[in-house]
Amino acid sequence: VDEEEHKDTAAAAAEIQQHLEKQDNIPLNIAITGESGSGKSSFVNSFRGVSDDDEGAAPTGVKQTTSEVTPYPHPNYSNVTLWDLPGIGTTKFPAKKYLKLVGFEKFDFFIIISNTRFTENDVKLAQETQKMKKKFYFVRSKIDNDINAERRKRDFSAERTLTEIRDDCVHSLQGIESPRVFLVSSFKQHWCDFSLLQETLERELPMKKRDALLFVMLNINPEITRKKKKAFQSKLKYWATLSAAGAAVPVPGLSANVDAAVLVGAVKHYVHAFGLDIPSLKRLSVSTGVPYTDLCAVITSPLAAAEITTELLLKVMTQLVGVVKLIAAEEVSRLTLTAGIPAAMGLSFTITYTILNAIISSLMMLTGCLQRVMVCEQISSST
Fold first, then answer.
1. In angstroms, rounded to a whole number, what is the distance separating the alpha carbons of residues 381 and 61?
2. What backbone phi and psi angles, to 5 degrees, belong to 114?
3. Which of 181, 213, 171 is nearest to 111 (CA)?
4. E strands along 198-250, which residues?
5. pLDDT tens figures, 108-146
6. Is the pTM of this model over 0.90?
7. 125/20 Cα distance (integer angstroms)
């Protein structure tokens, strides 16, 4: 391979890397607003997959804790930020000037939260948001408190209780055409409408913003994980091409290390998005009541609940017999130097594509196992 071809290969690889980085850094800004005590901060934490007492969590408590517009970036995806806004209608943030004071232009959509009935100020905010051509969504929070309070009654019916709450909320939103109200618990995300809310937000976002939201969505139903798998697979060709570019350099042993280095970044992304990293699993344990050790017992992949390193990935790669044969063939073709490099590039592409695709499928299966655990917990807690 002459110098010009090396330059062309390097330029193509740099362009692909730039494209991937650009895709991973599309900004998404979500405004969370509501009156003091409505559960905004807990919702912000829940949506970001953090506990109220985690470092970097939005402060919660009985006192008014949100007095300024406060950004809370997602811990794994800093391009996604939830903004905890002060309640509308306070002295500092009067209803008429609210949108201007909080800087509405930067937000992609608004989530309006209440833990009781929605107020006149909530309706005004929704109407003004609509005038500004922004989407808004009503969230009735702390549903777990309502269910637990009603459970003490002899004729308790969870379904009837939820219907009554939803109807009451809709009734309080006079002036809003066909209002949608999502009933959620920030501590029991697999209850009620948390999953429906996530899916609705993702579906109604502009196409270029959807993946940004998709990757931070909680894995509380199979449809979400299927969408994540599809999004990951759509980018496999880029990661594989980066690997092939590494194979263009005729140095024996180099490509396997390049492949592993390329894989580390991708696999970390997959593990975080599927909620299989240690912090995510521990939070799942807290929210479901299932012991952390029991959740880990469901997990069979060495990549889950582990630090993703080059050494770990090389170990996983050697466990895939077919991939090992491809790596050996790649190194043999590389030894023929110039004549073998096109073949080595093709093999390197195939190796990386095959490994990543297998990892995506296996991690999705593990997430499905955890979802079944959540369903079992939901059934047992409702009986």
1. 26
2. -145, 145
3. 181
4. none
5. 999 999 999 999 999 999 998 998 899 999 999 999 999
6. no
7. 37
